[in-house]
Specification:
CATH class of the largest domain: Mainly Alpha
Number of helices: 7
Strand order of the largest sheet: 1-2
Helix content: 55-70%
GO molecular function: proton-transporting ATP synthase activity, rotational mechanism
Largest sheet: 2 strands, parallel
Shape: elongated
CATH architecture of the largest domain: Orthogonal Bundle
Radius of gyration: 18 Å
Number of domains: 2
InterPro entries: ATP_synth_OSCP/delta_N_sf, ATPase_OSCP/dsu
Number of strands: 2
Order of helices and strands: HHHHHHEHE
GO cellular component, one term: membrane
Organism: marine metagenome
Oligomer: single chain
CATH topology of the largest domain: Peroxidase, domain 1
Subcellular location: Membrane
Distance between the termini: 21 Å
Length: 136
Amino acid sequence: MALSARRYAQALFLIAEENGDQDQWLADLEVLASSSRNPDFIAFIDSPKIENVKKIEVLKEAFSKSISDLALNLVSLLATRNYVASLSSIADAFQELVDSEKGVERAEIVSAVKLTEEQEKGVVDKLTQMVGKELS
C-alpha cells in the first residue's frame, strides 16, 4: 500500500475519531472504493481529456446523495491531485486503523474442502483464543 494512501487514511482516522463518526467514514469510503474498482469510473478519472473541474462536478453530483459532505470534500481533493484511483487503498488503510483501534484482527480461512458453519465457527473461536483479539 502506498505511503500516501496510508497518510490520507491516518488524517481521515483522526478526523473521524475527533468527530465520533468512524462508522460513517467506513460506509462512505466503501461506497467510494467500490466505485473506484469500476473500469468505467477509472477510465473517466484517468482521462486527460476531461478537466479536473469537470471531474469534480461529476463526482459531486454522482455521490452527493450517498456520502457525507466531508467525504465529498475528500473526493474533490483527490481529484484535484489526480489521486482518486487510490480510494480503494485509502479505504483499506482506514479500515486497518479502525480495526487496530478496536482490537479486531482480520483473518481469511483457506481450506482444501468446504467447511461447515460449525467447523468455521470452531476455527474462528480457536484463532480468537490464540491471538487474544476479536476476528473479523
